[in-house]
Every structure is written in structure tokens, then in C-alpha cells.
Amino acid sequence: xxxxxxNSKAAxxxxxxxxxxxxxxxxxxxxxSRIAESAYYKAEARGFLPGYELDDxxxxxxxxx
Length: 65
Prior knowledge:
By secondary structure, this protein is mostly helical. The chain is built from two helices and no strands. The chain has helices at 26-45, 53-64. The longest helix is centred in the middle third of the chain and has 20 residues, at 26-45.
């Protein structure tokens, strides 16, 4: 059996990254939103294959700096 989730293409939207109990500063929200959006598009380009989420995030974060 494959360990890949059946719903692997159902990725979260970039705007769904903040937990309900976390309220970052407004400037942090803008930066984090830009990073999340970039990471999302990196994942989309890979077909949302699982296991690369951190790599996508770190690459997007490096581009932001």
C-alpha cells in the first residue's frame, strides 16, 4: 500500500497558515503571507507531492530576505 495520502492535492491556501491562537504583528503577517504564497506556488509546481513542505517554505523564506 502506498503511504501517499489520497487527498495530497488538497493543500491549504496560503491564507490558512495562522493558528487561531496566534496573532503575529501586522508586519509579520505581511511577510509570512508572502512567504506562504511563494511556498504554495513552489508546491503547486511539484504537483503537491508530500514531504517537501519545509523545503518549499525555506526556499521561499530565503527569496524573501
